[in-house]
Amino acid sequence: MPSSSADELSPRDSWLQERSQHALARFDDKTPVIYRQRIELHRNVHEWIAGWGGSSLFLAGSIGVGKTHTAWQTCRRWLEAWYAPNRPWSGGPDLRTFRSTALFDALRPDGPDEVRRTLVTELQKCDLLFIDDLAAAKASTWTQERLFEIFDERYINRRPVIITCDVLPNGLPEITGPRVSSRLAEMCGDSVVLLEGDDRRKGVAA
Ligand SMILES: Nc1ncnc2c1ncn2[C@@H]1O[C@H](COP(=O)(O)OP(=O)(O)O)[C@@H](O)[C@H]1O
Ligand SMILES: [Mg+2]
After folding, report:
1. Which residues on neighbouring strands pair with residue 165, listed in sequence order?
2. CA of 74 relative to ligand 1 center, distance in Å
């Protein structure tokens, strides 16, 4: 018996579903293995995903509370939400993820200018930028200037970032320089989420 029309996806929805499955499979491939497990997210993180308001998300907390895992899973839910049938289609999303140490390395002055310029432009424009462990290393004055280029462009265009960090935003001027930290504070607004609890890695070892 043929299925009723209510069971069938419209051509648009089926096209979206195919694109979404492809994008999510690619994202899962690049997600570090331990962060692929679906976890329950903090209530404020759900609100951030639902908001789509161009605000950024700052996940703070001490070592091992689950900041990086939360951020990877938040990126995945953000990606799922991008393909929701009721959302106006604006092309496939460009989502970039970086550990801060790898990012600071890539921005160093000793690499080829052209490669660095291309990276800065891509990170200014991508739809979502996730930087993990922003306070892991202090940025040099040069790197702070490149970070400023990236963050200022995202700030004036309301493009979101997700940051994980073991210091609160008021401790960031030391690491990123005051111009970046001031913009980031405004970009995140109320979306500064403090994850609390024990170091989960110690729980595993015990
Ligand atoms: N909600 C969760 N449920 C189960 N395991 C979790 C959860 N959040 C984090 N973990 C696990 O705890 C460990 C530490 O998490 P991680 O995100 O790396 O911590 P942080 O970035 O805060 O140092 C990892 O093994 C991670 O997979
Ligand atoms: Mg981490």
Report:
1. 60
2. 13
Q: In this structure, which CATH number among 3.20.20.370, 3.40.50.300, 3.40.190.170, 3.40.395.10 belongs to the domain 10-205? A: 3.40.50.300
Q: What is the phi-psi region of residue 133: left when phi exceeds 0, alpha when psi lies from -120 to 50, beta otherwise?
A: left
pLDDT tens, residue by residue, 68-111: 999 999 999 999 999 988 888 889 999 999 999 999 999 999 98
Helices and strands, number each (H, E), in the chain: 9, 5
pLDDT digits (tens, 9 = 90+) for 127-156: 999 999 999 988 999 999 999 999 999 999
Answer whether 0.90 is exceeded by the pTM.
Answer: yes
Q: Does the C-beta of 201 come closer than 6 Å to ligand 1?
A: yes
Residue pLDDT, tens place only, 13-63: 888 899 999 999 999 999 999 999 999 999 999 999 888 656 999 999 999
Rounded CA-CA distance 56/78 in Å is: 12
* Closest approach atom of ligand 1 to CA 71: 17
C-alpha pair distances (Å), 71 with each of 75, 118, 130, 136? 6, 25, 8, 16
CA–CA distance, 161 with 189 (Å, rounded to integer): 12
